[in-house]
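Q: For a teaching session next week I want to show students how multiple molecules come together into a single three-dimensional assembly. I've collected the sequence lines for a complex. Could you give me the predicted structure tokens for the whole thing so I can convert them for display?
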Amino acid sequence: MRKFDHINATTIEQAASFLSKSNAYAIAGGTDILGTMKDEILSVYPETLVNLNTIPGLSYIKEEGGKLLIGALTVLEDIAVSDIVKTKYPALAQAAFSTASPHLREMGTIGGNICQMNRCLYFRSPDNRFNCLRKGGNMCYAMAGYNKFHSIFGAMDGCVAVNPSDTAPALVALNATIKTSKREIAAEEFWDVAIPGSTVLEADEIVTEIQIPATSGKSAFVKFAIRKSIDFPVVNCAVLIDGSSARICLNAVYNKPYRATGAEEAIAGKAINEENAEAAGTAAVKGALALQSNKWKIQIARTMVKRAILACA
Ligand SMILES: Cc1cc2nc3c(=O)[nH]c(=O)nc-3n(C[C@H](O)[C@H](O)[C@H](O)COP(=O)(O)OP(=O)(O)OC[C@H]3O[C@@H](n4cnc5c(N)ncnc54)[C@H](O)[C@@H]3O)c2cc1C
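A: Of course. Below is the structure for the complete assembly, covering every listed component.
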């Protein structure tokens, strides 16, 4: 690892001020950012890490004003085992529980989980061997190369990396709002379409809280990964069925969490049964566009939607 400065922020304002300096990154659990630094994957090495853990009061799960509020520094394990989350927002508890391993869940925060960088092997290649589109280069190596785990819904700006977060689709399905040091952003709009896989956060902006509206609906999260634990999703899916309406979000299928509106329309107001869930799964992948080696993910996505809907029965 190269030399870098590490600054303990004690307030949100102080963190924002440190982050406004060039080439500074926030660090929460460090389970993603430190790996990128050890492998030296970025074209410009981070000069400064601004530690958010030293800001008091950013780790909590509470109900207030008709919402579930989760502090950005809350670790995934606390979310996975929270009785409130498990009972009222099971999709999020299941998503948190499905992430990585117990050790990583004890370190990794919800804020870091939704801000993590993509896992494309070209982007993650040690020593920045591939100056890909995402890094300012002029080529997406995965487009014509190894693309078994990449986007099945096309590319934005030519990059076919996918968003790897497990909690992100649950937050979109649950209609969450991401509160930052500057504003409130609907979860659905939190990931940038112009810079694939990135968030819309400005350099000096940090996530402070996740807000989820209370719901009496049923929600569920399912994940398909190659390994049963410590593995990123090949495809995951979160569903909220609330009365006659549904919110369905897939992830790891596109540059950002993919709201499957076709599936939502297909299941809205219908009985939750095998036949209707199957039809919704088929509607979810309408318009999918496989690359050379990832056609198999279309079937996985269809099945994930079906299973997540059936899990809400
Ligand atoms: C072996 C392994 C397996 C993994 N498996 C999974 C998996 O199955 N599913 C999954 O979703 N993830 C997985 N991860 C990724 C990662 O561990 C988790 O996403 C974790 O939640 C990241 O949180 P963190 O607090 O450690 O983030 P950090 O590493 O501290 O930060 C990650 C990024 O988010 C930014 N950031 C952090 N907090 C904030 C904030 N409050 N505001 C603004 N920016 C912020 C940082 O600047 C950095 O760019 C895995 C990682 C490893 C190493």
